[in-house]
Amino acid sequence: MDEPYRYRNKVMSPFAAGRRQGGAALKGGFAKDGRVFGKGAARRKGPLREILTGMYAAGTHRIVDTRHCLVENEQAQKVVRSVKTLMMRYGIEPYDEDAGTGFMRHVVVRVGHESGEMLVTLVTNSEEFPASRSFCRELTRMCPFITTVVQNVNLRKTNVVLGGKEQRLYGPGFILDTLCGLSFRISSQSFYQVNSVQTEILYLSAIGFAQLDGTQSVIDAYCGTGTIGLVAASRGASSVVGVDTVESSIRDARENARHNGIENAAFHAADASSFMRGLAAEGRSADVVFMDPPRAGSTEEFLDALAVLAPRRVVYISCNPVTQMRDLRYLAAKGYRVEKVQGVDMFPHTDHIETVALLSKLNTEHHLDIEIGEDELSEIDFSKDATYGEIKKYVLDKYGLKVSSLYIAQIKRKHGLIERENYNFSKKENQRVPNCPEEKEKAIEDALEHFGMI
Fold it and tell me: Is 319 considered catalytic here?
């Protein structure tokens, strides 16, 4: 990225209670100018707790102050600090995830890169927000660049940030942003890439890979708000069908098509795998499939249905090269060839990247079906990956060490060789899985190298 700072258009900060300090505090309500709001609110004597906000430290729920983070949007950071200030002023308790008490859980800020519009989502532990009008009035006074504010209610004891119920507190409840020459509607639960500058590079690379010339039918799987599908519809696709499980994203995708005047795109709220299976069962086809699955990658059901649809080109966008590589292997076994892969620096200053891969369907007219007699089979080298048993035997014979399938799976996964995301995991809840000892890890790696797998 040419200017890899302040690029994150989405800032999400949890709230938690810190040490206590002087001042009045309340339980179950909100206070301002000596008044108490909310059913059952009661003034509590004693000091008010400091409110912590920022990001969770890796692998923990310990909050790290990120007010000086150089990749987050500065105005979004100001909103987070302002919400914290108003919580202290109104006596609003932060959420306690252990006890399930408190009111404010998170604030999520989304900023339009081109439009500058800003959506603020206040995630609360209760539907009642008695002081919401005055809270929003003060918040927009402190941050006049805010376009809209919504309250998202999450009553569950979960690590998932957003709940299912929302209400508008201020403004239209969504923002608009411009990407690749199109206008996109973004709501609180819509998927939208966090780096708009690099997203344009990513999407234009994907469109270039597809080689659209006005004749191809396109499927946009895991489509979110329809960004890549609508760009394709405006740049050479004859028709586009998008699918995603999130209904609010599909509503946004349909609205995005409408206000961009795009009539050759339709969007469906459904599980992508089931939707693809349905199309395959109906005998439908597609020339190009764009797919942008979550970090866990796609599913065998989806990839099997894709192979039945037999698009000439598959453009696979991924934020996790390991699961992407796994899925590319699966598609290779279904008759696809990887033509090229392009990395995009979507997350500067981290070791994460976004990749876009082009696969093409092998031309069956250039392949022959042949029969081989049993006497000829012994002369053919059917090279394949070693089995777990072969790896165990090699390690035992050479090193005198016994290794388990679990350890082999761990080392294969480390090198991107494991076939499925959950293979060889314990089925027991909260089961602690031991890590492979260093001595055995080196022996297993030697075996993988011996069998030509790494």
Answer: yes
Query: What does the domain layout of the chain look like in residue ranges?
Result: 10-173, 190-365, 384-450
Nearest Cα to 393, choosing from 450, 434, 453, 436?
Answer: 450
Tokens of 323: 């699961």
Helix residue spans in 282-364 (DSSP H)? 300-309, 321-332
Q: Domain 10-173 adopts which CATH fold?
A: OB fold (Dihydrolipoamide Acetyltransferase, E2P) (2.40.50)
DSSP secondary structure code for residue 366 in this structure? G
State whether CATH 3.40.50.150 applies to domain 190-365.
yes
Which residues, in sequence order, are bridge partners of residue 241?
219, 266
Cα–Cα dist 112/130, whole Å: 29
Assigned token pair, 207:
């469109």
The token duo for 354 is 């976004």
Contact of 220 with 246, CB cutoff 8 Å: no
The label of the residue with tokens 């099997």 reads 304
Tens digits of residue pLDDT in 284-313: 889 999 999 999 999 999 999 999 899 999
Determine the Cα–Cα distance for residues 216 and 77; give it in Å rounded to an integer: 44
CA dist., res. 343 & res. 354, Å (int): 6
pLDDT digits (tens, 9 = 90+) for 167-178: 999 999 999 999
| Dist. CA 107–CA 127, nearest whole Å | 15
pTM: 0.69
Q: Give the span between the Cα atoms of 286 and 374, in whole angstroms.
A: 39
Q: Which residues contact 234 (CB under 8 A, 6 or more apart)?
A: 180, 181, 182, 260, 262
Contact 9, 110 (CB under 8 A): yes
112 contacts 118 by C-beta, under 8 angstroms? yes
Which of 69, 136, 223, 319 is flagged as catalytic? 319
Backbone angles phi, psi at 6, to 5 degrees: 55, 30
